[in-house]
Structure formats: C-alpha cells, structure tokens
Design brief:
Radius of gyration: 22 Å
Distance between the termini: 66 Å
Helix content: over 70%
Order of helices and strands: HHHHHHHHHEEHHHHHHHHHHHHH
Oligomer: single chain
Strand order of the largest sheet: 1-2
Number of strands: 2
Length: 503
C-alpha cells in the first residue's frame, strides 16, 4: 500500500484509461440490454496489449461506469439499463414523471460515487478479513438470504400484499422454466426447445419494465415526462444538498452493498433491493417511497455501486468471482499472468494496489462525467418527441435483448412478458415482485436443494437449516422485515384513532 502505487495510478496514461472506461461504461450501461458484463467482455481483448495495472484500471472503470449508467434508463424510461438498477425505477421514474428527473439524475450520480468510494476503500483496507465472510456462507445461508429477499415483496407490493405475493409466485414460476439448477431436470418447457435455456433475466427485465412504458406512451397524448418550469439542466446543488442530508442512508446502503457484493452470486440487484427495503423501513412519516422519494434513489444507487468494490474482495483474495463482470476481469488477470489468492496482496501487490487506487480514481472521475452525461441525457429524453422516442427505444430494447444470447426467441419472450406486464398493471399487479421472484428463484432453489442434500446425508436437516448462526441472523432479519410494517401500520392506526377520539 505504498504511495508509489497511488502515483502510478495517477499517471496520464492510467488517468486516460480510467476516464475512457467510465465514459464508455456509463454509455453502455444506459442502453437497455447492454450489461456491465457485456461491456467488460467486449473490451477484454484490447487489454491484452496493455500493462497489467492499466488493463485492470480500464476494466474496473468500465464496470463501475456501467453499473451507474443503468440509472439513466431506470429514471427516464422506467427501464433498468442493468439488473442492478431495478430498484432505482421504484422512485426514480416517479420523480421523472413529476418533473424532477433532473434532480433524480443528479442524486443518482452523487449516491453512486459515494457507494463506489465506500466499496473501493473497503477493498483497499479490509479485503482479507472481509473475504472470510464469503467463506462463511454456504448453501443454506444463500437459501435464507433469498427468502429474506423474497420477504421484500411486502415492501414492493404497492399496498396490496396479496397481489404482491401473486406476482412473486409468478416470478418464481418463470425462474423454474428450463433446465433445473441442480438436478438438470427439464421443466415447464411444454416441449419447446426455445424454453430449454430458460428465461433470460435481462431480457425479461426489459420486457417487464420497458414495454408497458412504451405502450402507455403510445396510448396517451400527454408528454412522457413533465418539466419543472425554470429548470433547464441537472440540479447539481440541489442534488448535493439532498445527498448530504441523507448521508446516514448513503452510508448504511453502501455498507449493505459492500457486504452483499462480497457474496458470490448475489450481485447489485439484490443489494439494491435490500438497501431500498432498509431505507423504506427506516423512513420518516413525511417520506413516501414508491411515489418519487429521493432517498429511495440514493439507497439503491449507493448500494449497487458499492458492490463493485465488494465483489472484488473474494475475486482477488480467494479467486472466487462475486459477479459475472468479476469473472471476466478474473480471466483477464489470469491472461496477464496474475494469480489470485491469499498471497496476492504480498506477491502481486504492485499491480493490485495500483488497480485499487485506479478504481477509486475512476469512481471520483465518475462525478463530473456522470453529471455531464446526465445533463444531456435528461435534456435529450425530455425534448425528443414521442413519435421519435418510442421507435428508437423499442429498437434499442430489441437489439439489446438479441445481443445477450443472439436469440430471436429472447426478443419474442421479452415482448410477450412486456405485454403480460402491461395487462397485469391494469389490474393493480406491479412488475417488481415478479422480477424479484425471477432473480431470487434460482438462488433459492440451488441453496435449498444443496442444503437439503447435505442435511439428509448428515441426518441433521433441522440443524442444517436452523442451527447455523448466520442463518439464524438472516431469519431474524426476515421476520423483522415481515412483521415490522405490520407493527408500524397498527401503531399508526392506533395513533390516528387516539387523535380522532381526542378531537
């Protein structure tokens, strides 16, 4: 952790790579379907001719930029540019509809930078001890973590728990289509070869979130987004003031993102949903989550960007990639001759520390770059006529969905799921519980089957599911998440009754 490594990261060449990576990643991440994994994978061959440290800085900058870039489409089009931006749509798009999209873009940038710095600093100072957290998680812990995630349906159901549970069940059912995670059984394909590969998550996200918006834009004569009078650019100062006022929320969400990022397979989407749930659970009476609450945007964006640094902890220390982009970067490391493992920070410290400092510098560069891109993105989306915007976005969604697996079938499934989501929305069913079930279903299934197999083999099923300390802690948080809203609603109803009687 010498100062020389920091100076090496500050060389003009590395700064140029960091800035280019942030800009390229942000632009790619803002396009629905073009994920962070795709952005990193496409540019890996370029890095083969670069020095190891510079190559890693470029890839890390692309990764962190792409995670942030997903916020643009989430806020302005109600479409997660990346899966990590799912929860950003909950309050980001309502803010844009109410004419505060410029403010939402600004606070998303501030929150992303803050979360990225927390994750990067955790990687710099706490990598070895935090990596033990990943090792402590087994199949049963992942199962209970998924159950905890599914408990968030109560918070995402829009006031109708029964419809939220039905949406979550539909998402779980969709996650079971294709080949089973563990047993390799073929399920729910109805004899179709198209469905054997299952439903691609990113394409499903695009369909469930974007297609209903496009249909509504065509069906309604009003403007897509409202504009506050007198506001012509992204509100830098207002965003900074709100971010400072919600610094505790930012810190809590960033810590959540870092810890979840350490867990292989969890990723930014789970981190964003958990952070959003915690922010909503600790909300003040005057805050209205789901209706354009700035704290909702800050919680999700700080959490999903914190997973970047958190995900590198098991990748570098244990050689276990936490997310698909981490796996791609791990492959680039191996090509460069860098071997990951517990001794990496001692044997390859020069490369690793230069990379970490470069990642922190790229995160800082994301602030001016993100605000600048956000300014023009907002003005463009707002001012483009719907007659041009709708076909352009529709074309981008089709290209993005096709590019994931080069499959026309994925495009058709995306359109079908989008039409289904639009029809269900007419009856009060939200897309968020469906997406939650779709993402967490495979994690829950794999963890449950593996834990059951181990428990049956050791003849201690109860101890396997209810006898491990981490599992018990997650179960406690799950119960708190489920019972907390009920307690608060009853308490609020009691207070309202007392006030009425007093009057």
């Amino acid at each position: 952790m010498e100062f020389a490594h920091f100076l090496e990261a500050l060389t003009p060449v590395n700064l140029a790579f960091a800035l280019f990576g942030v800009l390229a990643g942000t632009i790619v991440g803002s396009i629905p379907g073009l994920t962070a994994t795709m952005a990193v994978a496409v540019l890996v061959p370029i890095t083969f001719a670069l020095p190891p440290a510079s190559a890693l800085i470029l890839l890390g900058a692309i990764y962190t930029g792409a995670i942030y870039g997903g916020a643009y489409a989430a806020i302005l089009l109600n479409t997660p540019g990346t899966p990590s931006a799912i929860a950003t749509t909950f309050d980001g798009y309502p803010m844009a509809q109410r004419g505060r999209g410029d403010l939402a873009v600004a606070i998303a940038c501030y929150a992303s930078v803050f979360g990225g710095l927390v994750g990067g600093l955790s990687l710099l100072f706490l990598a070895p001890p935090l990596s033990s957290v990943a090792l402590a998680f087994g199949p049963v812990e992942y199962f209970w973590l998924s159950v905890f995630g599914l408990s968030l349906i109560a918070a995402l159901s829009g006031g109708n728990l029964l419809k939220g549970l039905a949406g979550g069940a539909l998402g779980l059912l969709l996650s079971c289509v294709g080949i089973a995670e563990v047993s390799s059984d073929v399920r729910l394909t109805f004899g179709s070869l198209t469905l054997i590969g299952g439903i691609e998550v990113v394409g499903a996200l695009i369909g469930l979130y974007c297609i209903p918006v496009l249909i509504d834009m065509v069906a309604t004569p009003t403007r897509h987004l409202q504009i506050d009078q007198g506001v012509s650019a992204v509100r830098f100062r207002d965003g900074a003031r709100l971010a400072w006022g919600s610094r505790f929320n930012l810190l809590r969400s960033s810590v959540i993102g870092t810890v979840i990022g350490i867990l292989p397979g969890a990723g930014g989407s789970v981190a964003g949903l958990v952070a959003y749930s915690e922010a909503k659970r600790n909300a003040r009476p005057d805050q209205h989550f789901g209706q354009g609450e700035p704290d909702g945007v800050m919680a999700t964006e700080s959490a999903n960007n914190a997973t970047v640094g958190g995900g590198f902890i098991p990748t570098l220390v244990l050689g276990i990639p936490g997310t698909p982009p981490d796996a791609v970067i791990l492959g680039a490391l191996l090509v460069q001759g860098v071997r990951t493992g517990p001794a990496l920070f001692e044997q390859g410290g020069s490369i690793v520390y230069t990379f970490i400092y470069g990642l922190l510098i790229a995160t800082v560069l994301m602030l001016p770059a993100g605000l600048l891109i956000g300014r023009y993105a907002y003005k463009t989306i707002v001012n483009v006529p719907k007659a041009m915007l709708v076909p352009t976005v529709a074309f981008m969604t089709m290209i993005g969905t096709f590019a994931i697996r080069n499959s026309i079938s994925d495009v058709l499934l995306m359109i079908i799921l989008g039409a289904l989501a639009w029809a269900l929305s007419r009856f009060g069913f939200a897309a968020s519980p469906v997406v939650l079930g779709l993402i967490l279903g495979p994690i829950a299934e794999q963890g449950f089957v593996q834990a059951w197999t181990i428990g049956a083999a050791t003849e201690d099923l109860f101890g396997m599911f209810f006898g491990r300390p981490i599992s018990l802690a997650i179960i406690a948080f799950t119960l708190l998440s489920l019972l907390g809203p009920l307690f608060m609603s009853r308490r609020s109803a009691r207070n309202t009754t007392k006030v009425t009687v007093h009057e």
